[in-house]
């Protein structure tokens, strides 16, 4: 079989975005071009803009729908709120925060990078020191943070960042990348005083990549989310995340995220033993089982593989992925007990967060 040909059946898409698109969303996009000056378009967008606010948990924020990628939304968030030369405190905790910092530097901002070991969350003690030193001069114009670092499966505590800013009555803007968190993890724009939050269409919203937001797919995607209930969506992600972590533990492998309170419910980065190349796991999963897993990125290349468990996904789909990972692990010579990860999943009814 040629490398690029899928085998029979569906591809099992378990990269941490893009994710499976619900069939109604795919159907909603299948439309003829429309008269964009007709009254139907403002009527639709008005509803959408109000609905989008619900998933950001804001009543005061102003939503923008931009046909771009997460990377484009980063740029938009920066260039519409700050000026070149402005000082930004930015947390470096993995590949996506690294790329955002790189963009901030290229755009000419004065980026004050706070780095932590990959696998750990943002260093808030360092932020506190910087805010204390800047308590009167206010040279820090913004704090930029990736809520959920997709490369390492680490979720940061945004409420704690807001508490620090408030403790020093610091006016810096709080800019949040919610690309792999919003609509899957607990996110509260108003309550946490987030000034700018951005997300991408291909993650928890379960839409096409690069925000082909056509408006109709967003309309249908939001309808499905509200039908399930946003809180239930978040709880479902917690169940799926917990099941994945239990499986990893049962396989005798380690989570790249080293702080329990930072475990991500949308992506788990799994550390493999040094005698196995994690890229081989990803390659073999795709070729042999039609299972798409995420590679380890940058510093984590060869050391971790990632299981995405977000978006339009249910328990049995995830169990299929976990079974697939077990078979792959066995094929590459890791001594896994087949069925152990899948069996561990049954404990999720008793365990909330592991
Ligand atoms: C946390 C995070 N931010 C930003 C991005 C970049 O998004 P895009 O690939 O749509 O440019 C990603 C992509 O995976 C991401 O996970």
Automatic annotation (TrEMBL):
Signal peptide: none
Keyword Transferase listed: yes
UniProt modified residues of type N6-(pyridoxal phosphate)lysine: 203
Domain of life of the organism encoding this protein: Eukaryota
Alphabetical list of InterPro entries matching this protein: Aminotrans_V_dom, Aminotrans_V_PyrdxlP_BS, PyrdxlP-dep_Trfase, PyrdxlP-dep_Trfase_major, PyrdxlP-dep_Trfase_small, SP_NH2Trfase/AEP_transaminase
Molecular function terms from GO: alanine-glyoxylate transaminase activity; L-serine-pyruvate transaminase activity
Binding site for substrate: 306
Cofactor dependency: pyridoxal 5'-phosphate
One of the GO biological process terms: glycine biosynthetic process, by transamination of glyoxylate
GO cellular component, one term: peroxisome
Domain Aminotransferase class V: 17-215
The entry's keywords: Aminotransferase, Pyridoxal phosphate, Transferase
Enzyme Commission number(s): 2.6.1.44
Record family assignment: Belongs to the class-V pyridoxal-phosphate-dependent aminotransferase family.
The protein's name: alanine--glyoxylate transaminase
């Amino acid at each position: 079989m040629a490398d690029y040909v899928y085998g029979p059946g569906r591809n099992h898409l378990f990269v941490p975005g893009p994710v499976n698109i619900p069939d109604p969303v795919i159907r909603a996009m299948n439309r003829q071009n429309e008269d964009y000056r007709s009254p139907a378009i403002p009527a639709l967008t008005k509803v959408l803009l109000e609905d989008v606010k619900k998933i950001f948990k804001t009543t005061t924020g102003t939503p923008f729908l931009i046909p771009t990628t997460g990377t484009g939304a980063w740029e938009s968030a920066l260039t519409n709120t700050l000026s070149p030369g402005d000082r930004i405190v930015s947390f470096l905790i993995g590949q996506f925060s690294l790329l955002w910092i790189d963009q901030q530097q290229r755009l000419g901002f004065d980026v004050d990078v706070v780095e932590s070991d990959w696998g750990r969350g943002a260093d808030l003690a360092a932020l506190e020191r910087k805010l204390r030193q800047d308590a009167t001069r206010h040279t820090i114009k913004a704090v930029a943070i990736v809520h959920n670092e997709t490369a390492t499966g680490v979720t940061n505590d945004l409420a704690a960042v807001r508490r620090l800013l408030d403790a020093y009555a610091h006016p810096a803007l709080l800019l949040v990348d919610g690309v792999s968190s919003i609509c899957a993890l607990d996110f509260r724009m108003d309550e946490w005083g987030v000034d700018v939050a951005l997300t991408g269409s291909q993650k928890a919203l379960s839409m096409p990549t690069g925000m082909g937001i056509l408006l109709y797919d967003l309309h249908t995607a939001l309808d499905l989310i509200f039908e399930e209930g946003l809180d239930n969506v978040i709880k479902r992600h917690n169940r799926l995340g917990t099941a994945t972590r239990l499986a990893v533990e049962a396989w005798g492998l380690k989570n790249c995220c080293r702080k329990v309170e930072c475990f991500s419910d949308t992506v788990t980065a799994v550390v493999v033993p040094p005698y196995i190349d994690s890229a081989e796991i990803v390659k073999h999963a795709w070729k042999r089982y039609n299972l798409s897993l995420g590679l380890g990125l940058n510093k984590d290349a060869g050391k971790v593989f990632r299981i995405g468990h977000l978006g339009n996904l249910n328990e049995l789909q995830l169990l299929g992925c976990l079974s697939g990972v077990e078979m792959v692990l066995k094929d590459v010579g890791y001594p896994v007990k087949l069925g152990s990860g899948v069996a561990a999943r049954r404990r999720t009814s008793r365990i909330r967060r592991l």
